[in-house]
Amino acid sequence: MTKPPTIRDVARLSGVSTATVSRYFSGKTNALAPRTIESVRQAAKVLGYTPSEIGRSLRLAQSRVVVMLVPDATNHFTADIAVSVESALKGIGLSMVLANTGENAAQQDRLLADAQGLRARAIVLQGAIDTPRLRELVTTQGNLIFANRRPAQGIIAPYVGIDNFQAGLAVGHYFIARGYENWVAIHGPRHYFGSTARLDGFIAGVGDASRVLQFESPYTMQAGYEHACRLLDHERKKYSVFCANDMIAYGFYRAAMERNLRVPDDLVIFGFDDNRLNEWLAPWLTTVKVPALEFGPAIAELIEMPKPGFEGGRNIILPFELKVRQSA
Amino acid sequence: MTKPPTIRDVARLSGVSTATVSRYFSGKTNALAPRTIESVRQAAKVLGYTPSEIGRSLRLAQSRVVVMLVPDATNHFTADIAVSVESALKGIGLSMVLANTGENAAQQDRLLADAQGLRARAIVLQGAIDTPRLRELVTTQGNLIFANRRPAQGIIAPYVGIDNFQAGLAVGHYFIARGYENWVAIHGPRHYFGSTARLDGFIAGVGDASRVLQFESPYTMQAGYEHACRLLDHERKKYSVFCANDMIAYGFYRAAMERNLRVPDDLVIFGFDDNRLNEWLAPWLTTVKVPALEFGPAIAELIEMPKPGFEGGRNIILPFELKVRQSA
DNA sequence: AGTCAGGATGTAATCGTTAACATCAGGTGC
DNA sequence: GCACCTGATGTTAACGATTACATCCTGACT
């Protein structure tokens, strides 16, 4: 209710100047006399003083928040990345504000403006959408970081994530090695560069595009379910399905269960992303494991490092892994 | 790279004073001449100006961020609440910063201090831990809101969530109505008031404490799994298990599956919380559905309303629902 | 004793915004 | 013509912190 104590209050109570108090809280304690340190500590404690991050940010023209924009915060994999990032940022003294674009370009641009307003130290985008405003910020601000998916090929900015083409390729090769037939690819939205890269990799892996049934799909369970219903009710075969992410795979699986199909006897389902819950709730799901927990440290590193020698785009490519479970 | 334009730059370019620009961006446009509005709009656009939230916060002694502290961000239900809150806050012009306490008292207190530093408009705690610092803030700041679980009985502060005792009671009554035997309650940590309330309700519902096997457990899959292993390997019965949350239930289920037990023929499993994924991945789970998506609007309302007539603690009690799936 | 180095601390300008108050022009009522 | 009002805009003092620069003190060296 009453306004919080300021640095001046602490200074007055401990009988020193605000500069000294500031030095104490900025960790410049080796420039202070032990007696002074103690009296400031005491006064701050008595008053319950916490330095105002706002005053500090204003003075330093630099805030300590990082904005993370996610396309769908209810996606468990997305959330895992957010958690990893939050934890790593906290480790270097930063806070994370989370916001949901809902895969909506206008909403994303609005949130980017908000992030500007907060003078965010960095803006991390999972699944960014390619808009003029985004491109403008990439060039003018240079504090954007793309995680997991790049919005487009031409954009030069730091990226953290796997090599999507290689991952798709690995799945394609696996399909060939196991002799799977009746290939189906339920791929993500074409406007994501990453989705297309996964699909291209997969097709390169199986080696024959004409034999791959392709469906474009939003990254949701509902969409996966609907694609599966259409496919399975149209013609029943032992399909080998490569889903663009695990959500789609969950949806597909449900449709298969409703038709009493068994995995992997009647159907092979491949997902993409993997998260902690799969081990417990989806032991039938074989998927490409993307190391969600490694995003945090990687992004923290990109933020801390001042600048690389060359222009823009440092990349941190994380390893992926084929996580084979019962379905294969 | 170059520092962002300030209100002064816009004022200079459009030939008006900073006050006028400020008025424009504070939405006081009906006090401005149309010609002025247009020239400010133009200038701001040319410069790419976005008002500094930091400057504004400093001046107003009030920031627009709300800090949300969660005990375990990887819990899907917890995340659903966070998403709901973020979305509702965005609707009233606020941002959410998310932080993870990891069920750790010291970490929570550290984060509370950070929230103070940010001059957070409000602090929302899911699953707060009762510490002296917490109690101090509740009384001195009055901007704390408890969601889903209260830390303790004595604390007077706004609360949003279900009535845990009633929910436990409903489960107990259901057990009786269906004639379930061999009651087991894997309840949450005792230091959470909410956990205890659920357990007390359940016991009241079944009516005979002495016939309830009780285990205290962390809210994790691993813990649920371990309790299940011990219980099932000790003596095999058709247990009726009430788990403190869905995570624990997932863990219990896995142990049951490994032993080829079938739900609900060999075992009844009850969870608590429910989330969107259950419908798809855990159709065997009967659970108490807590309306995660209603937390956001409720919390936004608590933050917006200045103060109730009486001291502290307004509560918003949300409805719960028994979500019966295959397991029962 | 005088000079000087260097450690400890104080003074004051500054960051970007808001809002109370001041100003000013033009219109209205007498 | 004067007083007064109103609507549009300008002036300026905060808000809470940091830091370059100034100051003061103590002790060491010549």
Question: Summarize this, please?
Answer:
The structure is a homodimer of 328-residue chains. Chain A has 328 residues and is of the alpha/beta class. Chain A has helices at 7-14, 18-25, 34-47, 53-60, 76-91, 105-117, 132-140, 164-177, 193-206, 221-234, 246-258, 278-281, 295-304; strands at residues 65-70, 95-100, 122-126, 144-147, 159-161, 183-187, 213-216, 240-243, 268-273, 286-289, 315-317, 321-323.
Keywords:
homodimer; 328 residues; 434 Repressor (Amino-terminal Domain); Rossmann fold; 6-stranded parallel beta sheet; 6-stranded mixed beta sheet; 13 helices; 12 strands; 16% strand; elongated; DNA-binding
Topology of this protein?
2 copies of one chain form a homodimer.
Chain A: H1 7-14, H2 18-25, H3 34-47, H4 53-60, E1 65-70, H5 76-91, E2 95-100, H6 105-117, E3 122-126, H7 132-140, E4 144-147, E5 159-161, H8 164-177, E6 183-187, H9 193-206, E7 213-216, H10 221-234, E8 240-243, H11 246-258, E9 268-273, H12 278-281, E10 286-289, H13 295-304, E11 315-317, E12 321-323
Parallel strand pairs in A: 1-2, 1-3, 3-4, 4-5, 5-11, 6-7, 6-8, 8-9, 9-10
Antiparallel strand pairs in A: 10-12
Helix pairs in contact in A: 1-2, 1-3, 5-13, 8-9, 10-11
Chain A binds a DNA duplex (30 and 30 nucleotides) through helix 2 and helix 4.
